[in-house]
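Regression report. Comparing outputs from two consecutive submissions.

Submission 1:
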Amino acid sequence: MSSKIIAINPDFNFQLVKVGQEQTPVIIIDDFALSLDNLIDDACNNAEFAKNDNSYYPGIRAKLPQEYAIESLQSIYRQLYTIYNIPKHLRLKPQDLFYSLITTEEKDLNLLQRLPHFDTSRPYYFAAIHYLNEGEYGGTGLFRHHQTSFERIDDSRVEHYLASADHFVKKVATPPAQYIKNSTAQFELIEYIEYKANRLVLYPGNILHSAIVCPESDISDCPKTGRLTANLFIEFK
């Protein structure tokens, strides 16, 4: 077995999907790595998972090796400039990289964990999620907010979106204590990206999104059998 934490498959299957009314480009890459063995082994035997009180992520996370970010980004970053019209003078800056496991039971979810979210309103911030373990787990959903018709929340939309979302929750209906799995009176599911081991999904951080959690299979603190993902957050600035 190679000693590298990950080796990128030179023949990975690259797909570009245009999502929703706003036609947001979303990248889906299947067979991203030549092997996931070293990465999963590292998560199981070396990673120190813990809950981050400064995050709304409904589970535990551990630091990914820096090597993962270097190898992964070298294989795709040039294409991002063209796909997302990123100004050439901006440079890629990795922000955070984690192993992630969903561990929060539905009854324990706080309000914001029951809703789709956006990571930031900044235009050149991106999130990538790499599904690792084999199994039948929930994927990733992208959403439109019914009351504003917004799919991406940029700086010009933040105030209006937050006010509208807050009004709905306080005056119309509070979302039940469960993970969002389909369209609701407040949000429309506009794209569902299925979980598939060794699939990497990359999307702008300002699009409304959520893990689509299947409580029976996905809630686990075991990196060997849980919904283990590698999450990479980057920004061009």
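Submission 2:
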Amino acid sequence: MLELAGVTSGYRAVRVLRDVSVKVEAGEFVGVIGPNGAGKSTLLRTIAGSCTLQAGDVRLAGQSIVRLMDHERATLGIAHVPEGRRIWPSLTVEETLMLGAWRLPDRKVEATALLAYVMELFPRLKERLHQRAAVLSGGEQQMLAIGRALMSKPRLILVDEPSTGLAPLMMEIVIEALRRLRQDSHIAMLLVEQRIQNVLDLCSRFYILNRGVLLEPTPGVRLTRAEIETAYFGEN
């Protein structure tokens, strides 16, 4: 589904990622962990097309997408749930969700079915369908951001720090929804998350990103917490 090969990227002349290679198979949930400032959000933005690719290739279903703008990548089935949610506060929950369906060719029919699925996945949003996003709690806004991405009927969803700033109960609701999404759909996901246990619970495998360099643990080999922390923080 997704392949990054030797990617170096950042913001204009500033290099953040260095020679990064990533693969995500169709329907696979893959995690990315690492300390603050490691380049995790930059990795997702590179895939989504919102930061500068300096070297390497990004391929979706075998097709290079490096020359495509972010909105063109969205039409191919890439949805991005950014860190901080980026919700328009003046729009209602329903308006925000329907905005996510802008690219669908048969928008009226498909959006109705997708909206019903999002409401089932997040019953709290159904209760607040006609309320403005500004009055939602942080957890509800995170549900809304994920729901907006799902409304685009993506093949690949990029989720950046979904548990950040959430109360424990809200975090569990969001993580449980992602767990159900993994079971019920064929969507692939690249998940950036600070909480290592969430990544281990949700993802079939994961990468560790530190100082712009990516490490993938050997498949089938379960790292100890000490080994993860050494890769996470680096040698002293």
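Expected: both submissions complete independently.
Actual: both completed, but the second showed a warning that disappeared on reload.
Relevant detail on submission 2: Residues 2-86+155-233 form a domain with the Rossmann fold fold (CATH 3.40.50.300).
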